[in-house]
Amino acid sequence: MKRFASLVTIALILAVACPLDAQAQMESSSGFEIGPRVTIDVGDIEEFALGGDVRYDLSQNVDAPVQLSGAVDFYFADDAQVGNQEVDRSIYTVDLNAHYMLPTEKTFSPYAGAGIGITSSEVGGTSSTDTGLNLVGGVEFDTGTLQPFVQGQVTIGDFDRLGITGGLLFAL
Q1: Percentage helix, strand, coil, to 5, in the chain?
Q2: Which residues contact 122 (CB under 8 A, 6 or more apart)?
Q3: What are the Cα distances from residue 157, in Å, to 19, 64, 162?
């Protein structure tokens, strides 16, 4: 829990330190957004993760409110107990999703989507990889170049994940 409190504090400091006035903001001309994210998983993993998110707005090229999203998360997994020994445990995930952007006011953009999730774990030298189905829902807050977001995600597979993610996206 101490790690989570530290991450929240760092995220708040970064959010306040970034310029939020209208002159510092510019809309993305490329359609790409990229940024850091923090995830708390309450499914099978039950850990928190730091990662990155990249998104591409397809509506600039096609007449549909669709956004492609890719994310990588590295979990801060505690050591696992195998028999009488504690062994190292590492977990990372890769998610590829498509979001349907729901029509709303310009200040926020809710979305719902689906995709695939890949979970890779290693416990004491034994590794496993699982592919599952993602169901995603969230909202981006449109403030210009700096866009906070929050989303929930369920991944159904051998590793069932249920995560709440928050982060900051920077328009390129």
Answers
A1: 15, 60, 25
A2: 88, 89, 90, 91, 128
A3: 41, 30, 11
Q: Distance between CA 152 and CA 156 in Å, rounded? A: 13
User: What does each of the 172 residues of the chain score in pLDDT, given as a tens digit?
Assistant: 444 444 444 444 444 444 443 333 344 467 899 999 999 999 888 889 999 999 999 987 788 899 999 999 999 887 777 778 787 889 999 999 999 999 887 788 999 999 999 999 898 888 999 999 999 999 999 887 789 999 999 999 888 899 999 999 998 8
Could you count the other beta carbons within 10 Å of the beta carbon of residue 68? 16
Round to whole Å and give the CA distance between 36 and 30.
19
CB atoms within 10 A of CB 83: 7
Q: Take residue 22 and report the two structure tokens written for it.
A: 């209208």
Domain membership of residue 93 as a residue range: 30-171
d(CA 71, CA 92): 11
The answer to whether position 164 is within a domain reads yes
- The CATH number given to whatever domain includes residue 38 is 2.40.160.20
Do the beta carbons of residue 139 and residue 101 sit within 8 Å?
A: no
Give the global pTM. Answer: 0.78
